[in-house]
């Protein structure tokens, strides 16, 4: 069994990624940590609890960062046109009166230290929680098994600016810290996720075959599907669930390795810049950085088939 911490900002596609983790027999979900991103952290925390409660799981949820480490970045610019005002496509979510102190970084540190070499972190939002944990306890980089992120745009345009993908753009300083730490990072970027498109008929079929749990995902995804329909697509991109599949089926992904930097100022803010391992020449700002990986290619149809097998099985 793989011990996984899911760092997330639910988020419509986050919901599908979470269901995949819960239903896969090889995943032991140790906890969920939440971060601002698709909605304010109070809502992403409430949403994570709502999904887990709806699906009959008592996995602990730890509230995380409400804003970025990067100076002068907006803290209230949420994609309501994609994920709705509540983060889950405006699907009804009961109020949760609990107000918690931020505990995500502490949970990450404590759980990694208690399980040396075993924890896999799957981060599908801003990487602020991970960066703060590193700042507090740099030793965890040597203790974690690896870190898998949904984020980046290495050889394709970004989806926030021409240079940057949303999760990286939302806190580029945090992303640069995470890519620069001495743990193994694998990015599942837009290069692959934008090619992994679940059609509306496929979503409907999974809802029918997957029971009430998958039906909930389909219900809260309708606004997300509508967003893509405005651009002429009949379905939705499943960014975050691609990263979940990497944990269980890495052979479906083709990795490129190299040192990664993320500028956190200027016109290139949020760009994921990789120095490929086969490149010859001066390293400059990439010197002394660890070599990380990015899935710039893969098998989208096989990834979708695996999602269907697990989430509707």
Would you write up a description of this structure?
With 313 residues, the protein is of the alpha/beta class. It has one domain (2-311): Inosine-uridine Nucleoside N-ribohydrolase, Chain A. It is built from 13 helices and 11 strands. It has helices at 12-23, 41-54, 80-83, 104-114, 128-136, 166-169, 172-180, 190-193, 200-209, 211-220, 222-229, 239-248, 300-311; strands spanning 2-8, 27-34, 61-62, 119-123, 146-150, 185-188, 197-199, 235-237, 253-261, 273-276, 292-298. The protein has a 9-stranded mixed β-sheet with strand order 3-2-1-4-5-6-11-9-10, sandwiched between helices. Strands 7-8 form a two-stranded antiparallel sheet. The longest helix has 14 residues, at 41-54. It is globular. The model has no long low-confidence stretch (mean pLDDT 92). Pfam families: IU_nuc_hydro. InterPro entries: Inosine/uridine_hydrolase_dom, IUNH, Ribo_hydro-like. This is Nucleoside hydrolase. Keywords: Glycosidase, Hydrolase.
Low-confidence stretches: none
- DSSP summary, beta strand count: 11
In the residues, how many domains can be counted?
1
Radius of gyration over all CA atoms, rounded: 18 Å
Share of helix among residues? Answer: 25-40%
How big a fraction of the residues is strand? 15-25%
Largest sheet: 9 strands, mixed
């Amino acid at each position: 069994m793989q011990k996984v911490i899911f760092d997330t900002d639910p988020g419509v596609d986050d919901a599908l990624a979470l269901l995949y983790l819960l239903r896969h027999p090889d995943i032991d979900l140790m906890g969920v940590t939440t971060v601002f991103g698709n909605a304010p952290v109070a809502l992403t925390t409430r949403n994570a609890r709502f999904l887990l409660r709806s699906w009959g799981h008592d996995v602990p949820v730890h509230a995380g960062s409400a804003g970025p480490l990067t100076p002068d970045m907006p803290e209230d610019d949420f994609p309501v046109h994609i994920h709705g005002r509540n983060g889950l496509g405006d699907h009804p979510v009961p109020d949760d009166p609990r107000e918690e102190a931020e505990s995500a970084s502490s949970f990450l540190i404590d759980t990694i230290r208690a399980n040396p070499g075993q924890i896999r972190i799957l981060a599908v939002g801003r990487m602020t929680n991970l960066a703060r944990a590193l700042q507090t306890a740099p030793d965890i980089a040597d203790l974690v098994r690896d870190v898998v992120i949904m984020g980046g745009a290495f050889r394709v345009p970004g989806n926030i600016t021409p240079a940057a993908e949303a999760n990286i753009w939302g806190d580029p300083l945090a992303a640069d810290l995470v890519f620069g730490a001495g743990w193994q990072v694998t990015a599942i970027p837009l290069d692959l996720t934008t090619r992994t498109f679940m059609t509306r008929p496929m979503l409907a079929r999974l809802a029918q075959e997957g029971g009430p749990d998958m039906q909930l995902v389909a219900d809260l995804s309708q606004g997300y599907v509508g967003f893509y329909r405005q651009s002429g697509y009949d379905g939705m991109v499943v960014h975050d669930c691609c990263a979940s599949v990497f944990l269980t089926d890495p052979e479906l992904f083709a990795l490129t390795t190299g040192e990664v930097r993320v500028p956190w100022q200027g016109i290139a803010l949020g760009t994921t810049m990789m120095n490929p391992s086969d490149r010859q020449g001066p390293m400059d700002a990439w010197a002394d950085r660890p070599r990380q990986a990015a899935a710039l290619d893969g098998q989208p149809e096989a990834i979708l088939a695996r999602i269907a097998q697990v989430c509707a099985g």
